[in-house]
Amino acid sequence: MRLLILLLALVGGFILVGMTVAPSQPVLRDWYIANACPLLDQLSTDMCAPVRRAASEPGRI
Known about the structure:
single chain, about 60 residues, mainly alpha, about 70% helix
């Protein structure tokens, strides 16, 4: 039971980082779009929307 809770917490943290931190960090954002978004899109396309929106904004570093 504890292992399941730990696994859920790790997955939730991974998604949370992608939605909050990754849009403002160019290297992390690029990695997240290339590696994590294809997997997360299978669950919901809304999870990667903030990262993709930040990547498409001109002038955003």
